[in-house]
Design goal:
The protein is an alpha/beta fold and 656 residues long. Helices cover 54% and strands 17% of the residues. It contains 20 helices and 17 strands. The strands form 4 sheets. It has a 5-stranded antiparallel beta sheet, sandwiched between helices. The chain has a 5-stranded mixed beta sheet with strand order 7-9-10-12-11, covered by helices on one side. It has a 5-stranded parallel beta sheet with strand order 14-13-15-16-17, sandwiched between helices. It is elongated and about 140 Å long. The protein starts with a helix and ends with a helix. About 6% of the residues have low confidence.
Length: 656
């Protein structure tokens, strides 16, 4: 945690960044030069050690010639002992031409961690043979030591005894006058110790210079950051909304120019302070509305699966029980569940930006279902009067969004009647011919459903009406209105390809008229669709992570003749389909599932079976599905789901 806080502080501190850059640069420079210096010193020391070792070997070979020729250890003792006195020498050996060791001497325990291993016979033979043939000295580097080999060579003009020796020794090749070998082992520990000492000294020097550099940089940085710090304090105060004073300009350099620019900014911000505060207030309102919409969407999604299960099992139970008392109880249960479903759609409407699943609805039924909620919304001191259309008005919409429109307008009407009054909501059909509609936009010719919301409140002036649909525009006190209600209403109606108009005068109340295109589908046709056959014999693969809802759908489909295969997540669905590829004819997929979402499952299965039919289900809003990357053009059934609706959609897609 302390390290995290330090790193967070360092990102905010200009001086710390300078220290970082200096430290990184200095350490990098140190490593480059130190590495080169150590490499050069190591190379030089090793070259010196190698040169000394070769000289020692040659000298010993020359001094050992009488002893090797006579194979007399007494003659070899002094030369070997003399070499052993040399620095870094840990062992000396003298061999005959055939490889027999005449003398071997190891140095005393001087604390050098050198492991003296026995000479490998194969390596010794190969080395001696190579030296005997070439007549040249050789050296080998081990883990922590260097071996030096040198031939013991007789004089070019032999004595009588030497001539006799070479004539009788068949091992001699006749090319070189080699009569033996010497081997000297020298440790590299002192060399390594020297290198370590160099490293320690360089680290000490680096630390001293780094501290001195930090002191110098501290002095320089303070002269830069002190005026910048004053500017920063004023910027922070400005960001917090406080009034700030101009800074004194002490220099004409870049920092001084920055101070001049800051003073100019202060002048500009003071002039725009009122507008800025207003925009900030509007932004806070927008953020609150967004948070409410997100919360509403989350609550609605959590309730959808449970509510769908309750409604489904209630419908199944109603079909099994036939006594009047049970039917009455179940009707009340299903009615309450349907109302809860309506509440959920209203919640989802807060977080939805489009008509995601439009279907034909009766406008009279929408208003009737919402009447009780509107009465609670406007309060007891305001009377609600509802006038239904004498003819059936069918509109293509999503019920929850029209409910949101009516609730927003009813809320505005309530605020316009603080002392009570009358709110009238009426519905009727009108025919538009491009000339008779009162709207901010000219509408297309055709038949429309007209919803009129009229209150007896204080009314509005013409200037207020012109700005009524602007986002964040409100006539209410600060904290009592967001200025988003009518702009949201306008957006929803526009998405429905409809139109909205306001008529009002101060003291005479307000009338809001909403025009929605009528659907060509009649009530009779809707009933016929709902009564279409729902039974089948096909095999359906259900992929749903909620076990309760999955169990309901399984029971529902099996009771209507279908064979059901269950899957609890995306991967399980793909696996179950692969196992039953020749049988599965329909996919019923939850869009948001663990491991793979419904769209991914469908895409993978479609590669194996291009003609497979699918119906997606989801308790999320369309905007949330877009954010999760799960939205598509395929058929989607939004939860909560009525049993008959589910059966009808499955049968419709299978027969389509």
């Amino acid at each position: 945690m302390k390290m995290r806080n330090f790193l967070k502080f360092s990102r905010k501190s200009f001086s710390t960044k300078i220290y970082y850059l200096f430290t990184i640069f200095f350490i990098t420079l140190y490593f480059v030069f130190t590495s080169y210096f150590i490499y050069y010193q190591s190379k030089t020391l090793k070259q010196n050690l190698t040169h000394n070792g070769m000289e020692y070997a040659k000298h010993l070979a020359y001094s050992s010639k009488p002893g090797v020729f006579d194979e007399n250890q007494d003659l070899l003792g002094d030369p070997v002992a003399g070499i052993m006195q040399s620095e870094n020498v840990v062992s000396v050996h003298v061999f005959t031409l055939k490889g027999t060791e005449l003398i071997g001497m190891k140095g005393p325990d001087n604390g050098l961690p050198v492991v003296l291993k026995d000479i490998n016979s194969t390596r010794k033979t190969v080395t001696m043979d190579s030296i005997r043939r070439s007549g040249l000295s050789m050296h080998f580097e081990n883990d922590n030591s260097i071996e030096f080999w040198s031939p013991v060579v007789s004089a070019s003009q032999y004595f009588k005894e030497e001539t006799l020796y070479f004539e009788n020794n068949s091992f001699y090749s006749g090319k070189n006058n080699v009569i033996g070998f010497v081997r000297i082992v020298m440790t590299m520990e002192l060399l390594n110790a020297s290198i370590r000492e160099i490293i320690l000294r360089s680290i000490l020097m680096m630390s001293i210079f780094m501290v001195l550099g930090w002191v110098v940089i501290r002095f320089i940085v303070m002269n830069i950051t002190k005026p910048l710090g004053k500017l920063t304090e004023r910027f922070i105060a400005m960001g917090a909304g406080y009034s700030v004073e101009k800074v004194n300009i002490e220099t004409e350099d870049e920092i001084g120019k920055l101070g001049v620019a800051f003073n100019n900014m202060v002048d500009s911000l003071r002039e725009a302070d009122i507008a800025k505060q207003k925009i900030e207030e509007q932004l806070r309102h927008a953020q609150k509305m967004e948070a409410i919409g997100t919360l509403a969407g989350g609550i609605a999604h959590d309730c959808n699966n449970t509510l769908s299960t309750i409604m489904g099992y209630g419908q199944l139970l109603k079909k099994r029980l036939h006594d009047d008392t049970s039917d009455k109880y179940l009707d009340n249960l299903l009615s309450s569940a349907q109302k809860s479903g309506s509440f959920i759609h209203s919640l989802l409407a807060f977080s939805r930006k489009e008509v995601s699943n439009p279907s034909p609805h009766s406008l009279n039924i929408i208003i009737s279902d919402l009447e009780e909620i509107l009465m609670r919304l406007i309060g007891e001191d305001i009377n609600l009067k509802v006038e239904f259309s004498v003819e059936e008005l069918i509109i293509l919409t999503e019920k929850g969004q029209i409910e949101q429109v009516l609730m927003n307008l009813a809320s505005n009407a309530r605020d316009a009647m603080p002392d009570g009054g009358l709110l009238t909501i009426s519905a009727r059909s009108v025919k538009h011919d491009n000339g008779g509609m009162i709207s901010s936009h000219s509408g297309k010719a055709g038949e429309y459903a007209l919803i009129s919301i009229q209150d007896t409140g204080m009314g509005m002036e013409g200037q207020t009406i012109e700005r009524a649909f602007e986002p964040f525009f409100t006539t209410k006190e600060i904290g009592k209105g967001t200025g988003l209600g009518l702009s949201m209403v306008y957006g929803i109606i526009t998405q429905h390809k409809g139109y909205i108009a306001i008529r009002s005068e101060p003291g005479s109340g307000t009338v809001v008229e909403i025009y929605l295109p009528l659907s060509s589908q009649s009530v009779l046709e809707i009933d016929q669709v709902l009564k279409m056959p729902v039974r089948g014999t096909e095999t359906v693969l259900i992929a749903e992570d909620n076990s309760d809802f999955r169990g309901l759908v399984k029971v529902l489909l099996e009771q209507n003749g279908y064979r059901v295969i269950e899957a609890e997540n995306g991967d399980d669905a793909v696996e179950k389909f692969t196992e039953n590829m020749n049988e599965v004819r329909f996919l019923l997929l939850d869009i948001v599932m663990p491991k793979k979402n419904g769209q991914e499952v469908y895409a993978e299965i479609k590669k194996k079976s291009p003609d497979i039919k699918v119906l997606f289900m989801s308790g999320y809003s369309s905007e949330e599905l877009d954010q999760k990357g799960c939205a598509g053009d395929n058929s989607i059934l939004l939860k909560p789901v009525m049993a008959d609706d589910l059966l009808m959609r499955v049968r419709e897609l299978l027969d389509g």
